[in-house]
Structure formats: C-alpha cells, structure tokens
Amino acid sequence: MAIANGLRQAWQYLRQVTGDDAYERYVAHSRQAHPGETPLTRQQYFRKRQEEKWSKVSRCC
Amino acid sequence: MTERIMPKTILAKLVWVGISLLGASAIGGIAIHQGESINAIWFVVAAACTYLVAYRFYSAWICARVLVLDETRATPAERFNNGRDFIPTNKWVVFGHHFAAIAGPGPLIGPTLAMQFGYLPGTIWILVGAVLGGCVQDMVIMFCSTRRDGRSLGQMARDELGPVGGWAAMIGTMMIMIILIAVLGLVIVNAMKHSPWATATVLGTIPVAMLIGVYMRGIRPGRVLEASLIGIALLIVCVIGGGWIDHNEQLRGMFDWSGESVAWFVIIYGFAAATLPVWLLLAPRDYLSTFLKLGVVFMLAVSILVMAPEVKMPALTQFIDGTGPIFKGTLFPFVFITIACGAISGFHSLVSSGTTPKLLANEREIRMIGYGSMALESFVAIMAVIAATVLDPGVYFAINSPAGVVGKEAAAAVATISSWGFPVTVDQMEMLAKEMGEATLFARTGGAPSLAVGMATIFSTTFGGSLLAMWYHFAIMFEVLFILTTLDAGTRVGRFMLQDLGKHIWKPIGNVSSYPMTVLSSLIFVAAWGYFLWQGVKDPLGGVNILWPLFGISNQLLAGIALSVATGILIKMGKLRFAWVTGLPLTWLAIICTSAAVEKVFSANPAIGFLAGANDMAAKLAAGTLSPERAAVAPQLIIGQRIDAALALFFAIILWIVIADMLRMTLRMRSGKPVLPLSESGYIRSDPALVAGTSH
Q: What are the E-state strand segments in B224-379?
C-alpha cells in the first residue's frame, strides 16, 4: 500500500515537473477562477505556453 | 520567520560538528595531498559537506536576518495566479524547473579547461565561489524579484538604481549572449569536425526533434512525457546509427566535415531555429536535452560513487605561472574567469528574476530553490573536475592543447607534452582514439571531447565495459544537444533584446510581430555571434583560448550588475550593516573582472594581451615571417583581436558604471538626499487556502 502510494506520488511529481499535466491544472484553475468562461483547448493552451516560454531567458549557459 | 539558525538539540549540534569536521578534513586532505593519485570520493565528500554546512547555516542566517523572509506574505504567484506563468507550484517542481534552467554546459566546460592549473585551484574556487557568491546571488536576486511582482533584472536595475544602471544591464546582457553563443558554437565545432560519427548523430537529432514537435503539437498535443520518451529512444538510435555510418566507407566521407563546414552548419542552424516557430524545433529539442541532461548528471554522480576513480592530475601544475597550453594567463585572475558557471554565474540572475519567482507558492522556498539549486549546479562542476582529472594528465593535455601550441604532428605533440612532465605516447593516443571511435583525439580543444572521454571511461566501467565508443558518442551527443538548446534559445531571446534596444534607434525594428523584422533582427544577431565563431574557427590556436576568457569576463560582469542591484536594494532596505553579504562577492568580482580585462587588453605578452597579439601578428605579417597558411588568415585575426580588446574594455567599463551608480545612490542616501524609492510591492497576507496542496 505504502509502495503503491509512493509510486503514485512519484508519477504525479514526474507529470508535474515535466509539464505533462499542465493543461489539467490550467482547466481546474480556470473553472474555479473564471466559472463562466470556456477554457482554451489543450492545443491552444500549449501553443500559448510554448510561445511565452521561449520569448524570455529560460535557459542558461 | 521560523528559520532556526542554530540546531536545537545536542544530538543535532553533534551531527553538524561531525559534518563540518569531515568536510574540513576532506578539503585539507585534497589540499595537502602529495603523491601519485588521490581518490575522487574525497572531492565528493569535501563538496557535499561544504554545501550542507553552508546551506544549513549561512543561507539560514541570510534568510532570517538579512532578507527576513516572511512566510505570511503572499507571493506574486498567489496574488496574480493566472494558471499560466503565475502559478503557485510545489516547491520540488519549482526546484526541478529552476535547476534545469540554470544548469547548462558552462559548469562542464569551464572546470575542464581550468584543470590545466591542477585540480586544487579550480576545486577551491568552485566550492568557495558557490557558497559565498553564486548561491547568494541567485537567492538574493530571487528574493528581490519575488518582492517586486516577479520583475526581471533589467527592470529592477532601472527601478532601483536608475536609467544608467538599467541601460547598462540591458546592453551587458545582450553582449554576454553574443559571446556566450559564439564560444559554445566553437565548442560544438571542435567536437564535431572530422568526426563522421558525431556529425551524423547530431544531424540525426534534428529530424527527431521535429518529429517530436509535430507529435506534441498535432498528434497528441501537450503529452510531454510520452513524446519525450519516444524522443530519447530515437536519440539512442541516432547514436547507434552514427556508429554504423562511421563504419561504412562510402557514407563516412559525407559526414567528415571541416571546422569551417561545421561552423556554417551551426550558424545556419541558429538562424533557422530562431526564426522557425518554436514548437517545431526549439521546444521539443529542449524537452529531450533537459531529460538527457538530468539523466546524465545523475548517472555521472552514481558512477563516480560506485567506481571511486583515482584523480591523476597533480594538485598544482607549473602552468599557474601563465604559460599553460590550453589558455595563457596566470592563476590569478584567470582561474576565476575560466570557471564562472559552477562558482558564480551572472546569467542565473536572469532566471532567478522574472521566471522562477512567478512560480513560488511561499517566500520561505526562496532558500531551497535559490541557494539549493546553485549548490547542486556547483556539484555538477565538481563532477566535471573529476571527469577531467581522472584522465592521465598527458592525455588531458594532448586532447585540449591546440595544434598551434604543441605542434600539428602527433610525434611533436607528445614530445612537447611529455617534456612538461606529463608523459604520453602516440600509441596511447591512437589506441584511445580507436576505442572512442574517432580518427584522432589530438587538439580537440573546447573541453567537450575530453569531458566525453572522461565520462565514457567512467560510464563504461560502471555500466558496461566494451562500449567505450558508444558511450563517448553518447556523451558528445548529449553535450552538443544541450549546447544547441542554449544556442538557439539564446539567439531567439537575443533577437528580442536586439529589437527592444534597436527600436530606440530605428523604430520599425521593434515590431516583434512583423516577419521581415524578425528575419532582419535575427540576421543581425546571428551575424554578431557568427563573426566571433568564425574568428575562433580560423584561429590556429583554436579560438577557445580567446573566446572563453571573454565569455568568463562577460558572465562575471553580469554577476557584478546583479550583485550591485542586490546590494543597492539591501542598503535601501536599511540593511547597510548586512550589505557585505552581496557586497563582498561584488568586490571580488570587480577585482577579478577588472584585472582580467586589463590583462587581456593591455598585457605586453602577445599570447595574453589582445592588442599585443594583434600588433605582434601585424609585425610578423609585414616582415613576411608567417607561413602562407597563417598569413592568409592573419588580417582577419588582427582585426578580430582588436575588436576583442574593445569588447573586454567595454565590459569592464559597464561594470564600473553600474557599481558607481550603486555607490552614488548609497552616498546620496547617507547624506539624506532623495533616491528612487524602494519598488517593493506592498504586504498582502497570504491565504493558505489559495496555495493549498502546492507547497507541502
């Protein structure tokens, strides 16, 4: 049980740190913060995020 | 603040005394060691204990007494939570993002080059520089930005010091990008030229990245994990495929490129990656290289612990007198310039401000993420030290010394290197090259090949003995891949900076949504770094010896700007008596940056001073004593060295302008005159419910 729990947590961490679950988190946030609005689709969301990420310094030397 | 500076229980006190003593004896052991070799585990112990003690006590003290972190204060992520860039995020996730962002190829290359002085100076500087300088810089800048809605370093310089500091920071940042990209490009050229295996592998990674890009955008949008796993598998196929091409007599020739061809490839690639949409090449390749980077760093740490290799380099070599083959210049100041990343890297202040602060769920996490990530990066630099010094010193010098110093012929090179007291034979080098699947390993300057040989040696012993060539080319692919990420991300950001600055001269260029302006500004920016890269490729001394110190100076300049901003903010907060926390590393950087810049510009030794070098070459050209081959490139190199001189001088002047601006502000404050107000945002109480589930 403890092992299964630990594995699940590790998996969740991996998904979050890589941004794999970023869209689900965004939708949850959007539903809560702006209940009336339709959130972006998965594809729209990722396009926007990528464009933003690579318009500023996000990698060092 | 709940941070407890001193341990509470007797047991805890004893444990920390134990860690301190262990660390001190490891450092002492490394320092006074005399003999054939010393085990690398001592380096790991010395480093780990230093970071632990510094983190536990120094960073806790800074957070509690100097910065006075306030866990009840809402962070920008909590206040502006928009589900996109401002998101309160689990601290381990932020740690992962921040570390992946700051850890680039710098901490691997700089320490490798600096080992020409012996292992001791570099190791001490990496440890001391990190815990007193680099970690402090990253953490304090992160704190300042968090208290200012996540503003960037440039904005903070403008708000806190004034327009002069702001402009200096902007121009300085763009210049460092140009030099950084040029020198990293040169490292790639030296790793790939006349290596069909490496070239074929790297070319193969481009369609792989595009495939992953298409997959993540169109086929399975945003499925980062599965796409990356497929990508990594394909990268390994590329390494194996590269080996197959290398063994095929007909195909081999197609990928056997000269330095010039590889340089053109890098230049065209940089331009393409900066102008193509990010989803196609840049973003997917970044996922792959980040996975690879973290994986390799982890594997290296495990293998060093498992294998416990012997360090064969002496503690000090005769080259501390400035006559080193890899780069010229005495121990002071050049060890501090050569190793920037890993000890203190100004570039980090660009990620510590602006990006990471927008993710922090609580202020108290600044300590772990700011100070802790940099300590980990410093540890990566220590691993690079180990990978370089486990090689036979003769082999290390044979790989890293340019042909212009030791001679073009193998026999001449080994004779020169052996005469320095580092025995090496032609047979030994040929054997090694064969094992690594390369035609030759002589004069592969830039640090990447010698690091790859070191890593391949360490990996193959731990994970599988007979696969040396595979490991070597895996390591080269890993290095090139993540240098390319820095290169094209840097070109893209550099283009935005150029547009931002350029609009003050010619307004239309500032239009970031215009495609012609995108192409034009990218062309200008690529031409700027391409010029320095080309100059390096043409240089018979390998170019790294010129460009790397210039890069070190520019990176330390940026750190100087960041620390000036931080010191100014501390003083304005009424913490003059604690201003030494950032003031001390700032003073040290000002000393080394200025001494290095002055030496690089004015030294009468043509191997060190840019002006003397240019004049010396001009005199030889006029007298007709240069070989025809060298005479052909001499006019280009003469102009190049003069531009390098102007640039080094420019860096030193910018640094002093910012320091003077900070001191001017301090003096005005002391005499009661008005200064720009502290731009800190007001206190808003954190609502634990809003950030629940993120920080614990």
A: 310-311
